[in-house]
Amino acid sequence: MTREEREAVVDWFAEQMKAKLREREHKGDWRELRHWEARDLLKVEVEELEEELRRQWSGWLGWGQDFEKTIDECCDVANYALIIAHTGKLCDERRNKDLAEAIVKNKSADEAAGIVGRVYSTQTPGNKYTKPVRLASIADTDSAGKRDKV
Question: Which of 44, 73, 122, 130 would you call most buried, defined as having the most Cβ atoms within 10 angstroms of its Cβ?
């Protein structure tokens, strides 16, 4: 497959995703979802896609005639993955903004990272415990502008 062919397929699928999002606009702003809520909704959509794929293959001729439902379920999965990626990006932007504001308010880098680390923490899959995040900042640079090891 050439790059142009691949990009055409991606463009087609993106249009399918956009149409599905337009159908669901009445559900509200996805930025209000917590990451675990979006993750749980993604799991439901993956299960629905698996069920649809099983249905498609249950026919004695292989793929059924109605592939639109499969495309629809693929779009649901992709859209929830998009929502998770976007809300994660927004969280990073907020964390960086809060850290910059703490530094501007004359907090040390460690104190600022501690403030932000209490609010924003990482959570590894399958682990209910969180660990604070130590963020590098402009306060971690020496007079020559070189970044200290963090």
Answer: 73
